[in-house]
Amino acid sequence: MALSLSGLQREVLALYRRALRMVATKPPATRPKFRLFVQHSFRTNATNLSPRDVSAIEHLLRKGRRQLEVYEHASVKDCWVSQEMNVWANKQRCGRLHDQRTSSRNYNN
Question: Does some domain include residue 103?
């Protein structure tokens, strides 16, 4: 059964997909940095905002669209990734590895 999404949720997902498509247009050496930037931006905002805070979500959508327009230009070849983003990515990876180990242990029992 498909989950029905609000218009705002559809807009956020459309912006996320557009950002991921932008990553694919960048040089292979810098794609991981762009992908991390996109994932960190969306995930941290998703966890820091209430889904009911419509005005803040709309503001972030406008800001994200403007930012993405800049990054979509062919002249943009690289992006800066902060230490905070790298730490966040490492925590995400460690969490996934822990989940995989736990699920494989449970599966083997």
Answer: no
CB 15 within 8 A of CB 58: no
Tens digit of each residue's pLDDT (9 = 90 or more) over 14-29: 999 999 999 999 999 9
Site of tokens 């209430």:
50
d(CA 88, CA 93): 9
Q: Whole domain around residue 19: which residue ranges? A: 10-90
Q: What is the dihedral of CA 26, 27, 33, 35, to 10 degrees?
A: 40
- Token pair 């083997």 in the structure block, residue: 108
Number of domains present in the structure of the chain:
1
What integer is the mean pLDDT of 33-52? 94
108 found inside a domain:
no
d(CA 108, CA 57): 43
105, part of any domain = no
Task: Return d(Cα 2, Cα 68) in angstroms, integer.
Answer: 29
